[in-house]
Structure formats: structure tokens, C-alpha cells
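Possible regression after last week's pipeline update?

I re-ran a chain I had predicted before the update to compare outputs. Posting the input and the new output here so someone can diff against the archived version. Not blocking, just want to make sure nothing changed silently.
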Amino acid sequence: MLKITYYGHTTYRFETEETSLLLNPGMLNGEKIIPSDYDVRIIAVTNHCDDALGNATEIAANSKAWVLGNTETIEKVESQGGKPWLLHVLKTEEVYEIPGLKVTPFPLNRKDPESGEKVQNLGLYIEMGKLKIAYLGDTYTRGTFGQLETDILIAPVGGNDVFAVKDATSLSIDVQPRIAIPMKWTSPDQPKKFTKYIEQFGRGTVPLIMEAEQILEVDWAAGNEFRYTLN
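New output (post-update):
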């Protein structure tokens, strides 16, 4: 079973019996989304901007967690005092693998929230708990994610520096995941519109709006029956 906990913005925890993965601990309105004494085994950050990286360096130091990210992200963590032996650069389309977890990064783009300049954002294809998850982080580009076999799609729908609702909907229709989860919306109307469009055109995809602190449990029952519960 895979347990997915949502903390708001683009921050998630994925957990199985074998390991745990924290995605984009981030900062929101100048506040830490995740406390620095948070316990986790792996931290993956999709870009070096503060709203994605947040206090990952402190969390890693306290929990002895690995930090995964692109070159710019890892360099920033190291400049903040991150221990080199806990840092790993994710290289494009090269699989990072430990027992119970495979992460394949793909290059996408985002806009720096302060300068507006284009920066690299990694989209992550995560294989965990017998499930395949496409997590796109902060981006307005889809890259190859429209062609990847995916059980769960997690994509931003906020417009401006990330996907507009119609673009996130189009990606989901192409991917045909079993579950599509919107994130990083800037108004309640955006996830509601996404849900409405997926229900109309999603061809079997279930749209789920997760609120902060909600937990989604997903599993393949008897090996071939997809089941989920949102608490």
C-alpha cells in the first residue's frame, strides 16, 4: 500500500512499509510548510527556488535523510551546510533506485517566482508500492509525461507560472491515469474546474482534490484491482 499525505502547495509525503519520500518541503508566504524536525528517509526537490526547497537542508540534517535534486538544487543545499554524503544529483532520465523506490527525473521548465526567469524544474516519475506516479512539481511544460504509463498524476493548475487548468486537463486526458490530483491552485475555482473537466472528458480517470493534511491510501488489491481511500 502507498500512503500519500498532502501538506499544501506542492508538498507531499509518499510512504510504504519500505521507505518514505518527502516532495518539495517548500516555503509558503514566508512560512515553513514542514517542521525542521520532520522524520523522513528521502527528500526530493524539483527545483532550487525557495517555494520548492524550503527547509530541506534542516530536515535532512535532523533526520539524516538523502536530498535528491538537480545540480542547482544540490549546490544550494550544500551552500546551506548540507552534508555532501547525503546529497545526490538527479541526472536527466537516469534512474535513482533504492529498495522500494525508483525515481526517474525528466527536464521541465518553470518561472522563478521572484525574477520571472525560466529555470529548470524536474518532473519526477516515481515507482513506489507497485504504483507509478507522475509528479510534475512547478511547471508549465509537460515534456514526455504525456506518454508515460501512469497510475496517479499530480500536476499544478494555478496558471501564471504553472499549467492553466485547460493545459493540466489536456495532459490528464492524454495520460489517462487512474487518479488525477491538482495542486498549487491560487483560487478554489481552479481545482473545481479541473475536476469538472476530468469528469466530463477524463475517460475513466478519477479527479481528487486533496486538502492539507488529507491522506490518500492506494493499493493494488489481489494484484490487479486498483483501490483507493481518501481520508
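Follow-up from reviewer: compared with the archived run. The chain has one domain: 2-230. Marking as no regression found.
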